[in-house]
Amino acid sequence: MNLLFLGTSAGVPTKQRNVTGIALRESKGKGWYLIDCGEGTQHQVLRTKLTFNSLKAILITHVHGDHCYGLPGILASAGMNGRKAPLTIVAPAGIKAWLEATCETTQLGLPFALEFVASDDLPSVEFANMAVATFRLSHRVACYAYAFTEKNVDAALDIEKLTQKGIPRGPLWGQLKQGFDIEFAGELLKSADYLIFKNKPRKVVIAGDNDRPELLIDACAGAQVLVHEATYTQEMAQKAIEVGHSYAKLVADFAESVTLPNLVLTHFSPRYQFNPQASPSIEDIRKEAQSAYSGVLYLARDFLEFTLDKSGHFSEVASE
Amino acid sequence: MNLLFLGTSAGVPTKQRNVTGIALRESKGKGWYLIDCGEGTQHQVLRTKLTFNSLKAILITHVHGDHCYGLPGILASAGMNGRKAPLTIVAPAGIKAWLEATCETTQLGLPFALEFVASDDLPSVEFANMAVATFRLSHRVACYAYAFTEKNVDAALDIEKLTQKGIPRGPLWGQLKQGFDIEFAGELLKSADYLIFKNKPRKVVIAGDNDRPELLIDACAGAQVLVHEATYTQEMAQKAIEVGHSYAKLVADFAESVTLPNLVLTHFSPRYQFNPQASPSIEDIRKEAQSAYSGVLYLARDFLEFTLDKSGHFSEVASE
């Protein structure tokens, strides 16, 4: 499972950072999910190996423009690139009507269907290889976090149990191993009951804008990674609360309280400069978070990619 | 008067070319006009010396997404950059309602007023230093060309006429020279009647998508420069006509027929590759146009800048 940051700036793009867009790639194949789609996200995708045809779903955390103004363009380009497969869009109320109005005004006919799921219903959405749960956050508008948990985790057959049950070695074992339930001696046997999972399923929580990280306690249970905004440092705490954002220490304190293994901060205000010698810089955000959090801390930047391996180990992918 | 290309690709962005956006800068000061605003135009602006505060107006040629999806984001960023001055938007019907719906859905409050002018009324819009006339084109949707003619052209006083009229040398001469009409001996005297213009006013025509260049005959009268799409070469003529676009020879033939001094082609289909060794490449478009047009031909690319000097001489600005 890989995380690739396509945009890490808050509100407006800068020369070094685009507005929000995060790609989550499945561990098998090329399938990926796009979480938020600020303007220019399709341009960032062009600079990666991701393709519009292998995009499984777009999930929008909230309606602010820096998280959704890239939607019409990425859909138009996917269409012009020949996409035919339906695309799921999980988004707060408003996005569906706005996209429909945009298609009508700009005479955009898409050659694939859009399947909308309203985030406001806190849906659990199941994809072939991924289950997504939705959690409510606190911001100026309705805003959500999406927790991605992999399905079809590698497992070994529980030979002892299979033998006890008298299931003969052969095709039935194979079906159970591949995750299919079977009928045996007039009984429905569930695949999961005859498998021993080697590892916990991988789980990544990606949160939208939020001034109350503690809302993510349930979401973070069993998660190896939380991606959360840290728009400011504590020095700007008053401004942060006014505009519904977090500062580094607030997120770090929460992550520490739930003993989260890996925390990735993103969505930095342009006031924090990219150059670590400048003041204030992104390094100020890092220092503040580091002082409160004893897990592994990362600060996102555009095109930074991470991998979460089967065993739950999370690490940076060396850039090419 | 300077022309700076911010995007020169048709339909979708490529790694080398963004979708349409053209900046026209006034000869005096920092004022500029943005013609079309595809997604990512604000990102391109960040890479130039243009500022959101000195933007005088945005003019949209038509409602297709590759010409307008960057509008909400550029307005949001201008607001976050502190712009307070009203902004004129000249655009076809639909854009106003769409922008208003976008602002409402995405809770975008702008700290400056938008003043909409409907292109469909073929308006002549007067700015302090520029007069803009609108011309109807032929495309799949209502589409327009904008002709920019500079005002306040350098001029000398007509001393003979002033003396004949008995106007005393002094402040009145100064006012006439600066373009102000005056009252003298109970009569209103127009500044333009007492000035000798050294040069023809500079005039640049910027056309949107169009499959009938001959519609620009009137627009091109007295123009030094026409910017026109050449999405395809003649090999793709049938496709071009189907989708309402021009191919190189069609535009070149027209430019030749009106003895246009300078032609800039842009809005190239991504099928024409940037690499001149590839096939088909942008160079195929150049060759086809060159064979039919004896004026000065340019092919636009992103960040290519041109200057049109007082005397009407048009040339590339050396990049830094």
Q: Any overview of this molecule?
A:
Two copies of one chain form a homodimer. With 320 residues, chain A is α/β, with parallel strands linked by helices. Chain A has two domains: 2-153 and 198-316, Metallo-beta-lactamase, Chain A, CATH 3.60.15; 155-196, no CATH class. Helix content of chain A is 24%, strand content 27%. Chain A has ten helices and 19 strands. Chain A has helices at residues 41-46, 65-68, 71-80, 95-105, 159-165, 171-177, 217-220, 237-243, 248-257, 282-292, and strands spanning 2-7, 21-25, 32-37, 55-59, 87-91, 114-118, 124-126, 130-136, 144-150, 155-157, 182-184, 187-189, 195-197, 203-207, 225-229, 262-266, 296-299, 305-308, 314-316. In chain A, the strands form four sheets. Chain A has an eight-stranded mixed β-sheet. In chain A, strands 7-8-9-14-15-16-17 form a seven-stranded mixed β-sheet, covered by helices on one side. In chain A, a hairpin with a 6-residue loop joins strand 2 and strand 3 (32-37). In chain A, helix 9 (248-257) packs parallel to helix 10. Chain A is globular. The two termini of chain A are 18 Å apart. The relative contact order of chain A is 0.14. Chain A binds chain B through residues 11-15, 18, 39-40, 42-43, 46-47, 63-66, 68-70, 72-73, 76-77, 80-81, 94-95, 97-98, 101-102, 105-108, 140-141, and chain B through 11-15, 18, 38-40, 42-43, 46-47, 63-66, 68-70, 72-73, 76-77, 80-81, 94-95, 97-98, 101-102, 105-108, 140-141.
